[in-house]
Amino acid sequence: MTEQNTPEPITYATAGVDVEAGDDAVELMKSAVTATHSSRVLGGFGGFAGMWDATALTSYRQPVLTTSTDGVGTKVAIAQAMDIHDTIGQDLVGMVVDDIVVVGAKPLFMTDYIATGKVVPERIADIVRGIAHGCKLADTALIGGETAEHPGLLAANEYDVAGAVTGVVEGGEILGPERVREGDIVIAMASSGVHSNGYSLLRSIVAAKGWSWDQHIDEFGRSLGEELLEPTRIYAKTCLDLIKELNADGQFALRGFSHITGGGLAANLARVLPQGTMATIDRSTWSLPAVFSVMAQAGQVPQADLERTLNLGVGMVAVVAPKAAKSALTWLNNNGMTSWQIGEVGALSDDAAAAGDDYIQGAKGVDGGGVLLHGSYAQ
Question: Where does the record place the PurM-like N-terminal domain (predicted)?
């Protein structure tokens, strides 16, 4: 093999990885991360492994650990284009903690992973500050994470984020389809906006219209990019408090939740309904927030595609016993969560499938109940 002259030594830095920048980022994020810690977090900040004291689980008769992992999807492309990075972390937390609360689990701790083409300490610190803020909202600890510099794989201004959460629920108190009964009431909790699903559709609309992210949209009262970067609402603490409120007598008036993410309202609600049942949802009980109506009109998006892609103003759903519906709605609205009744669970109708796109049964590998959407959205 013929040796070629190398004019200068090749180092990690010349290969595109800046170790010192990574250390700087860690220092900038340190205070935000440690602010999520309680006495249960062991080992301090910066260890090889995050540690959480599980002594608290001895109070459970049958502690069942739960976990969820997710990312934020192509919403990060808008954050990068706008050079706004301190909200995307809250989106990440919402995607995972609100999945495990569906079964009644309390989130205990979270870890994150950030991959980037070039570590810019201030940018990485902003992302992690957003994650830490989300963890505070969810009452969970951020106990570990990793930032990886991938030059040549990602552009210098590109990054992606992922995270995982671990939670716990009492084995005899797990929520799910087996608790749902005919006659149960379906309650919607308002979303804060688009949350973190459907951004490939939205970005396609923006590209087709030739809009810019800093373009002011009158209906939003701010720029397009600012509206689409509105962070995901985190429901975990509210949902856990609602469980305590409704299930204090052990009768499980709170049957279950559905986190409305990719697939939309009908597909996600169907996953938490038992076979042989159907939830009938009345569209006229709410009007589409401006972000959805404006984008739908701009892209001339068919209603069926909208409903199977975006949350359309409903970020979380609770299924409750009929006797508890009024108290649940009163409690939620009094505690700052805009909520309303959108439907009811009944027996599966033999002719439901004839409704076409208005009816969904089975989604994401779950052969559950059905969901029928009817009526028109309020104006």
Answer: 63-169
Strand partners, 167: 66, 107
Whether 368 has a pLDDT exceeding 90, the answer reads no
Residue 8: its pLDDT value, please? 77
Answer yes or no: is 13 within a domain.
Answer: no
Six-digit token string for 262: 């990719």
Residue 300 lies in a domain: yes
Last residue of a domain, one of 138, 173, 208: 173
Residue 329 reports pLDDT greater than 80: yes
Measured CA to CA, the distance from residue 142 to residue 137 in angstroms comes to 12
Q: Is residue 125, in this structure, part of any structural domain at all? A: yes
Q: How far apart are CA 257 and CA 101, in angstroms?
A: 8
User: Do 195 and 134 share a structural domain?
Assistant: no
| Tokens 């609770």, located at residue | 318
Question: Is the pLDDT assigned to residue 20 strictly greater than 70?
Answer: no
Residue 60: how many CA atoms within 13 Å on its side-chain side? 18
Residue 32 DSSP SS3? helix
Note the pLDDT tens digit of each residue in 200-256: 999 999 999 999 999 999 999 999 999 999 999 999 999 999 999 998 877 889 999
Are 213 and 239 in the same domain?
yes
265 Cβ contact list (under 8 Å, min separation 6): 281, 307, 311, 312, 314, 317, 371, 373
Task: Tell me which residue range forms the domain holding 215.
Answer: 177-374
Q: What distance in Å separates the CA atoms of residue 54 and residue 42, rounded to the nearest whole number? A: 10
Q: Are residues 285 and 239 in the same domain?
A: yes
* SS3 assignment, position 68: strand
Beta-carbon contacts of residue 113 (< 8 Å; ≥ 6 apart):
145, 146, 147, 148, 161, 162, 163
131 and 222 fall within a common domain: no
Question: For the purposes of burial, counting CB atoms within 10 Å of the CB of 331, is it exposed (0-12), middle (13-18) or buried (19 or more)?
Answer: middle
